[in-house]
């Protein structure tokens, strides 16, 4: 491919429309053409995050997009990360470090400073890479938020970025949502909307053609491709909408050769990407649980990370799930706590930082005490467990003081209850197999982990598949022209209501 330089913004009609997937696919496709490409998301609201090699916290999706691009993930690829702790308050992470806890109204006071951080980060990326593929957030047509926008059309206008809009046809109403997205924008914003991509289509594309022609006639903008539905292409997700997506094992019957995992779906569940490696194991069925009954048949119950440890522990008790977990432990049935889930398993929690609740009684299943500190721990630790090497990452305010039990990574184990603050441990193939074999033995199952599953190889295969979808189903020539030349001049204004 000839030398290419420029940038593009991938927007979407809704959250979970496919922006992250299209961005990752474009990054992988361009990287395979020899283009030095980087992802960028100016502002991300997500409880799934990752730690870069230099100790900065960024959105998990941007971390994976950097892997798709074949470049080292950096804080400037996601300069602003919002981590909700309740319906109204979020932690603000800037260039990988937490700077404030604010509500929605207070956040507005930070916008001008953050606008500068975003502009400088994008400029640095554009100076260091041939192409930058930017991802929007939610919808660019959130007209109530347009004045302070720094991630959708506000960014596109500031940096003169051409924009493509992704719509998820699986939700229904894709033509109305694509048309309505353009029509709700003011003329200056509309001038940067250069085309559409339809995502998750099932069936014959020919059936769409009358609608595509009509959409082009109404908006003056082409559809640059239709991406087909592919089961199993699970990119690291940004929010819990992904937990509602259909899985290949949905409704699968249980047998003795199947290992059943129930993951507690906390209201503020975070880093549930920890469980993606289990989903990749043949014979492991992962389901999310919101009631005590959902835990009854599980061979392993996982308490995952959470942005609100004390509040979600109260939720666990209100639902009767805490009692069920304690009963399981007494019966020797396996329970794993990760980060916030580990903190809940401790004897006590002292939290004057995250919830302000002070001293709270934990579930008491592990000999540990937790004290929350203002400084957030961010790291990429390494260790061993079950005789296998483990590389992981940690993101937490709660410091766990282990007072007994058998060592397990940085935490401990008592009987069939394990706890660790390390995220990503299950992505280590040897450790995952050894841990699952131990769980199966304790649960009395005949399950044997597959000896040849490589989570890293499966992730690479997924990223390659996304690159293939871009190459095979998008008008890559038109996309390259947009990257290099920007949005075409003279695009028509679409009035609301047509």
From TrEMBL:
The keyword Protease belongs to this UniProt entry's keyword annotation: no
Pfam family, one: CbiA
Gene Ontology MF terms in the entry: ABC-type vitamin B12 transporter activity; ligase activity
Keyword line: Cobalamin biosynthesis, Glutamine amidotransferase, Ligase
Classification via PROSITE patterns: GATASE_COBBQ, GATASE_TYPE_1
InterPro entries the record matches: Class_I_gatase-like, CobQ/CobB/MinD/ParA_Nub-bd_dom, CobQ_GATase1, CobQ_N, CobQ_synth, GATase_3, P-loop_NTPase
Highest taxon of source: Bacteria
One record GO biological process: cobalamin biosynthetic process
All residue ranges annotated as the CobQ/CobB/MinD/ParA nucleotide binding domain in the record: 9-233
CobB/CobQ-like glutamine amidotransferase domain: residues covered: 260-430
Gene3D superfamilies registered for this protein in UniProt: 3.40.50.880, P-loop containing nucleotide triphosphate hydrolases
UniProt pathway: Cofactor biosynthesis; adenosylcobalamin biosynthesis
Function: Catalyzes amidations at positions B, D, E, and G on adenosylcobyrinic A,C-diamide. NH(2) groups are provided by glutamine, and one molecule of ATP is hydrogenolyzed for each amidation.
PANTHER family for this protein: COBYRIC ACID SYNTHASE (PTHR21343:SF1), DETHIOBIOTIN SYNTHETASE (PTHR21343)
Family: Belongs to the CobB/CobQ family. CobQ subfamily.
Designated name of the protein: Cobyric acid synthase
Organism field: Actinomadura viridis
């Amino acid at each position: 491919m000839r030398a290419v330089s420029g940038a593009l913004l991938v927007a979407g009609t809704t959250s979970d429309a496919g922006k992250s997937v299209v961005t990752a696919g474009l990054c992988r496709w361009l990287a395979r053409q020899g283009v030095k490409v980087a992802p960028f998301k100016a502002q991300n609201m997500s409880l799934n995050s990752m730690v870069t090699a230099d100790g900065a916290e960024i959105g998990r999706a941007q971390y994976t997009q950097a892997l798709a691009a074949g470049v080292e993930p950096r804080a400037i690829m996601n300069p602003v990360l919002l981590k909700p702790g309740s319906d109204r308050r979020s932690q603000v992470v800037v260039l990988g470090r937490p700077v404030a806890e604010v509500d929605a109204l207070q956040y507005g006071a930070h916008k001008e400073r953050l606008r500068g951080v975003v502009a400088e980060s994008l400029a640095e990326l554009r100076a260091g890479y041939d192409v930058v593929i930017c991802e929007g957030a939610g919808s660019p047509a959130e007209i109530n938020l347009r004045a302070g926008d720094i991630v959708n059309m506000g960014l596109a206008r500031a940096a003169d970025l051409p924009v493509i809009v992704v719509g998820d046809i699986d939700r229904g109403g894709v033509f109305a949502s694509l048309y309505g997205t353009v029509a709700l924008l003011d003329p200056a914003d509309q001038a940067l909307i250069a085309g559409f991509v339809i995502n998750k289509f099932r069936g014959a594309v020919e059936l769409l053609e009358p609608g595509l022609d009509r959409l082009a006639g109404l908006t003056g903008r082409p559809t640059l491709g239709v991406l087909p539905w592919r089961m199993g292409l699970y990119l690291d997700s940004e929010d819990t909408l992904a937990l509602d997506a259909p899985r290949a094992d949905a409704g699968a019957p249980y047998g003795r050769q199947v290992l059943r995992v129930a993951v507690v779906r906390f209201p503020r569940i975070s880093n549930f990407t920890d469980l993606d490696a289990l989903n990749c194991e043949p014979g492991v069925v992962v389901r999310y649980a919101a009631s005590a009954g959902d835990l009854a048949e599980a061979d392993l119950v996982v308490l995952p990370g959470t942005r609100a440890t004390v509040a979600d522990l109260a939720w666990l008790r209100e639902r009767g799930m805490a009692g069920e977990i304690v009963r399981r432990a007494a019966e020797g049935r396996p329970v794993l706590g990760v980060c916030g889930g580990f903190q809940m398993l401790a004897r006590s929690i002292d939290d004057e930082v995250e919830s302000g609740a002070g001293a709270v009684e934990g579930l008491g299943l592990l000999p540990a005490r937790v004290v929350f500190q203002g400084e957030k721990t961010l790291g990429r630790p390494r260790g061993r467990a079950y005789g296998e090497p483990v590389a992981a990452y940690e993101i937490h305010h709660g410091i766990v003081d282990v007072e007994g039990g058998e060592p397990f990574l940085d935490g401990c184990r008592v009987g069939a209850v394990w706890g660790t603050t390390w995220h990503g441990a299950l992505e280590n193939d040897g450790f995952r197999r050894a841990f699952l074999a131990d769980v199966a033995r304790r649960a009395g199952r005949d399950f044997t982990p597959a000896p040849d599953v490589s989570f890293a190889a499966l992730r690479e295969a997924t990223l390659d598949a996304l690159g293939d979808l871009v190459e095979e189903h998008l008008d890559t020539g038109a996309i390259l022209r947009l990257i290099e030349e920007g949005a075409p001049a003279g695009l028509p204004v679409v009035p609301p209501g047509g």
